[in-house]
Design goal:
The structure is a single chain. By secondary structure, the protein is an alpha/beta fold. The chain has 2 domains: 45 residues, no CATH class; 183 residues, Vaccinia Virus protein VP39 (Rossmann fold), CATH 3.40.50. It has 6 helices and 9 strands. Strands 3-2-1-4-5-9-8 form a 7-stranded mixed beta sheet. It has a two-stranded antiparallel ribbon with strand order 6-7. The longest helix has 17 residues. It is elongated and about 70 Å long.
């Protein structure tokens, strides 16, 4: 099989940098050769354009259990509550962008998102000092975010109490009878600086007192989603994902 200089150099680079992928790369080259022989000539196929994807031959689609299950959990809550609009603070951007298809979403972040969609607004917010009236918002979420505040990871000021200040602000702005969807890592309490904090179930429920807990669901270390989870399971987790639906 003839290889142009570009392909030869690419093969050398992969052999040196990724020796465990070398067998898959040679399989890829064989597939390229066979594909070119059977090509119907609708597209150009050049060595300089090859784009080896060597890790995608899997039996199942991989995903991050935390970041797939918790937005799915929250979207299902909103499908039940159907608020007039929903305010999200710094959660995974795809969550609010998809929810905005059926509920208007106002997204706020320390780093605003320049996203253009119908039923979507975006702006700046410092979670420790929210520019919202007290008791004003009917439906609020803040998911996989609080654990970072005050650790400096995203350019925010270092503040050991940053998470507690943000929680107090979230509690303040929710209107009576309103909903707050809160997600954070749970397990044995610790800080893995400067990535995140990990909380116990008891810490979170105490921080959000006197709100009423409507639902607690859990993404355990082994993955999956346990709906209406037993809080005792949190003590067995190293880095679980706790999903809390509070009502004010």
């Amino acid at each position: 099989m003839y290889l142009k200089d570009y392909t030869v150099q690419l093969a050398k680079d992969i052999l040196i940098r990724f020796p465990k992928k070398s067998a898959r790369f040679f399989e890829f080259l064989s597939e390229l050769s066979r594909f070119k022989k059977n090509s119907d000539n609708r597209f150009s196929i050049s060595s300089k354009d090859i784009y080896p994807c060597l890790t995608d031959k899997l039996e199942t689609t991989p995903f991050d259990h935390h970041y797939i299950y918790h937005p799915a959990w929250a979207a299902r809550v909103l499908a039940r509550t159907r608020p007039e609009y929903h305010v999200d603070f710094s959660s995974k951007l795809s969550f609010g962008s998809i929810v905005s298809a059926f509920i208007p979403v106002k997204f706020y972040d320390y780093r605003p998102a320049d996203l253009k969609l119908t039923n979507w607004e975006s702006g700046f917010a410092d979670l420790t000092k929210l520019a919202f009236d007290t008791n004003s918002q009917p439906s609020v979420s803040c998911m996989h975010t609080i654990e970072h505040i005050g650790l400096g990871r995203y350019g925010d000021p270092l503040d050991p109490q940053g998470d507690l200040k943000a929680i107090d602000e979230l509690k303040r702005i929710v209107k009576p009878g309103g909903d707050l969807l809160f997600v954070t890592p749970v397990g044995r309490p610790k800080i893995e600086f400067n990535a995140h904090r990990i909380y116990s179930y008891e810490q979170i429920t105490a921080y959000f007192s006197p709100f009423t807990l409507i639902d607690f669901s859990l993404v355990p270390d082994e993955g999956g989603l346990i709906e209406n989870a037993n809080p005792e399971l949190v003590k067995q987790q190293n880095y679980g994902c706790g999903c809390f639906w509070f009502k004010k």
